[in-house]
Amino acid sequence: MEARCQCGSVSFKTPLPEPLALYICHCAECRRQTSSVLGTSAIFPRFKLPESDLLSCYAYFCRNCGTRIFHTTPAKNVVSVKGGCIEGIDWKKAIHLWTKSAMIPIPEGSETRAGASGRSTDYGTSQELLDHAVDTPNSSGGVMGSGGC
What we know:
The protein has helices spanning 28-34, 127-130; strands at 2-4, 11-13, 21-25, 39-45, 59-62, 68-72, 78-82, 95-97, 111-112, 143-146. By secondary structure, it is mainly β. The radius of gyration is 15 Å and the shape is globular.
């Protein structure tokens, strides 16, 4: 899948053609991060991103436009690519989290959780996927990190 920031300076292909999981989160933290009523995340195996070896922080943004690209936790083997950066995702299969604090109606028939996902976060990814270098032909702007998620 193709992913990019708002200005196009950072772009990359995800290591898999589909995410391991999709989440639409209605918690207050995601609302504040996105300045919206929800946050969207597509979970992929951890992969090497442009200039990521220079960063030690958890949340990564485009240096030019400030778009939040992804966040990661060192103890986990996955990254959460921000959903709005990825082209062509079918959000109908997403799990809605923290629905008890939702500010908009949840689509009927959606899988929901009143709180956190309750799902294991190792997703069974192999070391081969974790070491996979991502094709980043158009990443001229680079990414920068920020503490916290």
